Amino acid sequence: MEFSQHTWLNWHNLMDWSLVAILLAIAWRLIRGSLVVYLLVGVIAFNLLFQLAQWLELPLFSAFLEQFVGLGVLALIIVFQPEIRKFLLMIGRNAEPSKLGKLGRLMDSEAYNEEEEQGWIRAVSEACARLSETRTGALIVIARTSELKLFAASGMPVDALVSSDLLEAIFRKESPLHDGAVILAKGRIQAASCVLPLDEHHANPSAAHGMRHKAALGMSEQTDALVVLVSEESGQIVLADNGQFSEPLTPNDLMHRISKTL
What we know:
This protein is an alpha+beta fold. It folds into 2 domains: 11-95, no CATH class; 111-261, YojJ-like (1 (3-Layer(aba) Sandwich), CATH 3.40.1700.10. The protein has 11 helices and 7 strands. Strands 2-4-3-1-5-6-7 form a 7-stranded mixed beta sheet, sandwiched between helices. A hairpin with a 6-residue loop joins strand 5 and strand 6 (237-241). The longest helix is centred in the N-terminal third of the chain and has 21 residues, at 11-31. The chain is elongated and about 75 Å long.
């Protein structure tokens, strides 16, 4: 039998199946272990029921189910909104200019000043060192591709150059701004006492991982920001990125990690 280009086994089909498999694998990675799995099973079962009704030529039942199928796409967007956001964020992170190294720096809309960047990163690490010594809890959000204006609007505007003394003063327990997070963007403190989204995957954190830890994870999951956390309980300094905590860092390690990541 002649093997023509119309056969089901050709490179077009292989590419098609491979891309679908990759998308399904990514989707499964995002929803695994969450209640979304059960919702997805329900949606698939509902659509199979609709196909069965059409095959059996049940016009009234099919018309009834069709009304729900017509709203299916909108319902899926609403139900899977967090997962869709994470999927798009995953793609955006891999396409951002910072992934391109020095070439990406030149592609940024604003001039890149390495000396200024190292200055405010050093100020962050020095502040965290002193906060760690006194076991003063802190959350410092470092914006990357987005300025996080929506989250900054939930706190108190500051708009000041980053300095270790100012950061330390904000997080002192007697300060009215110590609750919440500080948001840094473009080498400036945009706002303090900001409210961050909580991590959605660890509903019952241990005593060592309370609300501050959940906020750090949640912010790094839902945005591309870096989040520096100083634990009030242990004094440890960790960095949250892409929904994951680093190992405990020294102030010097923190400075190098932020520089490398940015």
